[in-house]
Design brief:
Elements lengths: L9 H7 L4 H18 L9 E2 L3 E5 L10 E7 L13 E5 L5 E2 L11 E2 L2 E8 L23 E3 L5 E5 L3
Parallel strand pairs: 2-9
Antiparallel strand pairs: 1-6, 2-5, 3-4, 3-7, 7-8
Length: 161
């Protein structure tokens, strides 16, 4: 009998059973979690180098903008048609021209080892004003900036327009 004096129904007994559906659901969830974690891991075939550097005009003065994002485009290194090295990004401290934390695959992991073309863009992803930075520095196929992770730290010099 339940609290109201009625005989228990079949559905109320199943809901109260700790060994029924609750255990099946818990077991299924545990299996899903185990399978998900079994497939996780770092399968990235590339190695990364922690690098840093500075970006200034050719005369050594700072570029007078609010924010600059560097993008590093790997030159070569493809393992096959589907496995290419990732590009890297870094935010410049515009008060010093320096950058330290480059992210390619994981936060602050550095750059894929090798050579990279480097572009400069505003922090919002837009081109920097042409009166401050020549437009070719914003395009990966036109930029004259090329670095090699073996030669870090980098000193990137930009022409004044």
């Amino acid at each position: 009998m339940n609290r109201l004096g009625n005989p228990p129904s079949a559905t109320s007994c199943r809901r109260l059973s700790p060994t029924g559906a609750v255990w099946r659901i818990s077991s299924a969830l545990a299996a899903v979690v185990l399978v998900a974690f079994a497939g996780c891991g770092n399968k990235d075939p590339f190695s990364y180098a922690k690098v840093s550097g500075k970006v200034v005009y050719e005369d050594g003065s700072l570029i007078p903008v609010d924010s600059i994002v560097l993008t590093f485009y790997p030159q070569g290194g493809e393992l096959d048609a589907k496995t290419r090295p990732r590009l890297g990004k870094a935010l410049i401290d515009v008060t010093t021209g320096e950058f330290h934390n480059i992210t390619s695959n994981r936060l602050n992991d550095g750059l894929v080892r090798g050579k990279h073309k480097v572009t400069l863009r505003a922090g919002d992803g837009q081109s920097l004003p042409a009166e401050l930075v020549p437009p070719e520095y914003g395009h990966p196929f036109e930029t004259p900036l090329l670095v090699d992770t073996a030669e870090a730290p980098f000193e990137l010099r930009v022409k004044k327009p």
